[in-house]
Amino acid sequence: MYRLRFVPLSLSHRHIQSNLSYYDTILNIQEVDHLPSTQRKLFITFDYNARFSLLNNIWTVNIQGHNIPIAKVHLTNSQLAYRQQHVAGFKGFNYRTTESQALRLFRPYGGMSYYFHQNIAFIAFKSVEQMQSVCRLRLYNSNTLKLVSWPTTIILFPVIMKEVFRPMNMLNQP
Predict the structure, then answer these.
(1) Which letter does DSSP use for residue 89 in this model?
(2) Which SS3 state, helix, strand or coil, does residue 129 take?
(3) How much is the pTM?
(4) How many domains are contained in the chain?
(5) Is residue 162 part of a domain?
(6) Alpha carbons 79 and 64: distance in angstroms, whole number
(7) What residue spans of the chain are helical by DSSP H?
(8) How far apart are CA 19 and CA 71, in angstroms?
(9) What dihedral angle (degrees, nearest 10) is formed by the CA atoms of 87, 16, 75, 114?
């Protein structure tokens, strides 16, 4: 069983079933209850003949132009957070660039998932070596503009994040 996180409310079960049929027949789609109205998480059960070798090696699936995070149901939140450890930002995308187009550019180089914000694509990689090697490449978008890249550091633990993002006037207080 797999879970899809951050599923847009606009996507129907029919859209999801149609777009994931590439991996094989879906036996069941179950909505996770008791979530805030702005969040949506689904559990997907595939037929036993599904392409599990593919499903186990991807971090996102494209559904109607949205790249939706996918993972085995048993993975913990800390295991999922680890996937965001090696992230590089790439600036230079046109404002009309879709999420799927940005990720498609980086898939051959090991790009596994993304976050797109203000025309900057933040791409997650499995290893620091992959991330650094992609940052050294001369990459261009579809408009032949060179993409500028830089590795970023993502802090994994909320306790540490509280310390890092504490307001400056509170840093000297115990």
Answers:
(1) E
(2) helix
(3) 0.74
(4) 2
(5) no
(6) 27
(7) 13-20, 52-55, 77-82, 99-106, 128-135, 158-164
(8) 16
(9) 0
Q: Of 30, 27, 59, which is closest to residue 46 (Cα–Cα)?
A: 27
In this prediction, residue 152 carries a pLDDT of 60
Neighbours of 102 (CB within 10 A): 23
CATH number for position 143? 3.30.70.330
Domain span at residue 134? Answer: 83-154
Distance, in Å, from the CA atom of 47 to the CA atom of 44, rounded to the nearest integer, reads 10
pLDDT of residue 117: 77
pLDDT in tens, the chain (174 residues): 999 988 999 999 999 999 999 999 999 999 998 888 888 999 999 999 999 999 998 999 989 888 899 999 999 888 888 888 888 888 888 778 877 788 888 889 999 988 777 778 888 899 989 998 888 888 876 666 677 776 664 433 333 333 322 233 333 333
CA distance 74 to 1: 8
- Report the amino acid identity of residue 75: L
Q: What is the CA radius of gyration of the chain?
A: 18
Tell me which DSSP letter residue 140 carries. Answer: B
HSE-up (13 A, CA, CB side) for residue 148: 5
Cβ-Cβ contacts under 8 Å for 130 (sequence gap 6 or more): 86, 109, 110
